[in-house]
Protein: Cytochrome P450
Organism: Dactylosporangium siamense
Amino acid sequence: MMHREPIWRAVPALARDPLAALERLGAANDGAIVRLDVGPVRPLLLTSADHVQLVLRERSSQYVRDGMLWKPLRRLEGDGIASDGPSWQRSRNLLQPIFTARAVRGVLDAMADAIVAAVAELEADGRAGRPVELVEGMTRVVFRALIRAFFADRIPSGEAGVLGAAISTAFGALGWRIALPFAPDWLPVPGDQRFRRAVRQIDDIVYPHVQRVRGDGGGDGDILSLLVAARDENGAALTDRQVRDDVVSMFVAGTEATALTLSWLWMALDAHPDVAARVVEEVDAVVGDAAPAPEHLDRLVYTRQVLQETMRLWPAGWIVPRTAAEPDVIDGVPIRAGATVLVSPYVMHRLPTAWPDPHRFDPDRFGPAAPRRHRYAFLPFGGGPHQCLGNHLFTAEAQLVVAAVLSRHRPELVGSGPLVARATAALRPRQPGRFVLHRR
């Protein structure tokens, strides 16, 4: 079944507030495929978990990462894990063993130490009258942790700061390319020069470390060392370029998604003091006077539920476009080759049929007594073969950040607005405010 949203209604609504427009269409057409008539490009929005499963899993080879969003990102992240086809499959096969829940445990001690140190710096900034903007502060904490996970202690703080700024600049400079995904590469658009400068900075830092690890013939168990040492079924290693592409891809995804999710979490706790009190109670009971550590994670059950509910309402990856590589039919609806198919976690996570009272912030939706739901009704990490490999690392890192903040501090948001999102390449809060930590 298909609903056609005419151009005279689709274009003004999407221009005014794309998130509200898509959510309205999802709720009104729950289960139907919605064709958005927005000019020459007529994307198809999926509103059924069965259809999402079909596109992301069962027919994933027919719906590829190309065009909208993916083509601009490839300029930064290359042809590894962020791409499709044989190069993606090779990276996926080599990266998967490195990012299992058990393998990730090997880098969590170093990450926990980095998180505690970064949180202490945020507290010092607040005491000195220099409170940081919420997303910026979470980005600093997350980035410090990822630097340790990927590079151990090889990168000094100054160089790490340059790398972080360059990755942020490069990603931000892609805004026009993401908004105009079909613009040819030869056509200059705003941000291109900033993008090229930032990529040169990234490469000037990452490549020497890749070559150094390869020359040393070993490593410290960090992700870069494991990636350099990995071999495919023929015994072949990744090239320096492939290692660089995969490291940058994982860094961009890990930094942006984790920092934004944590920012939304602090805003949600600020708006729901009853939930915040339960999280503090759990952190006190589990962590106590100790520093947060990997062995605490399995017992931070409610904290994990709060993270899941945060990702339900405000998924960083709010839109997952796919391009039909060949003609197809879904539920009687013909899909032409080249058509853009939209999977929106933001829409799927707010469908009233799957999530009663969908706007209510309720972490108990993910508690042990919660009813079972369709596997593809909740997809903060995507789904199918392209599901985010870093989900275990993300969850552990986010829990450690929450525990590091709440075990010793009382967070305060200054100048924060309501829980309203704006749709960029990722889902960002409109008015996050500044983040101040007070010693408990």
